[in-house]
Amino acid sequence: MDRYEEYKKLLKTMMSEYRYRHSLGVADEARKLAERYGADVEKATVAGLLHDIMKDQPPKVQLQTIEDSGIILTPVEQASQKLWHAIAGAGYVRMKLGIRDPEIFDAILYHTTGRDGMSRLEKVLYVADYTSCDRQYEGVEHMRELAKISLEDAMREGLRFTIQELSGLERTIHPNTIFAYNELVCDKLRQQRDSAV
Ligand code: DGI
Ligand code: FE
Ligand code: FE
Question: Which residues form the HD domain (predicted)?
């Protein structure tokens, strides 16, 4: 059995059918984006497959996995249960699956919040999570178009969407989400200024 088949078999035991289909969809999308934008295709596929591995696990198990991985949560992270699966997922993949690659670790760790200074692989996974074939939200076609043109344009749109949604619900917004957004907006403004002179 190849590596991907082994991971798929494990995923099936850890998540719903719906989440399993999502994981396959994100792996496929991440592979395509990696090919298009020059990220490591194998790492992108593995990160895509495994990024939500802890998502359907009970919150207690997620917290325990985080603790076992030696990761300390900030107060904002403690208050935002939706973020735990990404942190626990990165820990699980390193600890239980023995995947030591720090790039895969970071891609999974930051797949929900993003951060500033993201690698190509991190951006690929972040965007793939928004544009995979199983996604159906309003505006997904526009996101898919953006993803074909520019990873950064798609990232900015995804972050804008998330920040808008979370603030509308009066939820916490992780500082990394704001850092990622500000960096991309500053980059765009700089490019506009540079091309004007
Ligand atoms: O796991 P997925 O559903 O595939 O997608 P995801 O990992 O991006 O998780 C999306 C959820 O995470 C969504 O309910 C909004 C929430 N989220 C995303 N960014 C932040 C966040 N929640 C908080 N509190 N802060 C964030 O910055
Ligand atoms: Fe996720
Ligand atoms: Fe996901």
Answer: 19-134
Give 148: exposed, middle or buried? Use CB within 10 Å, 0-12, 13-18, 19+: middle
Domains of the chain: 3-196 (1.10.3210.10)
CA of 87 to the centre of ligand 2 (A): 10
Instruction: Give me the chain's average pLDDT, please.
Output: 97
Q: Which residues contact 12 (CB under 8 A, 6 or more apart)?
A: 20
Best of 11, 74, 81, 83 for a ligand 1 pocket test (most atoms within 8 Å of beta carbon)? 83
Confidence of residue 7 (pLDDT cuts 50, 70, 90): very high
Distance (Å) from CA 98 to ligand 2 centroid: 20
pLDDT digits (tens, 9 = 90+) for 88-108: 999 999 999 999 999 999 999
Residue 1 has what pLDDT? 75
- Quickly list H helices, 58-119: 59-68, 75-79, 81-95, 102-109
pLDDT, average across residues 8-19: 98
Give residues (CB < 6 A) around ligand 1: 52, 55, 80, 82-83, 86, 111-113, 129, 162, 166, 171-174, 177
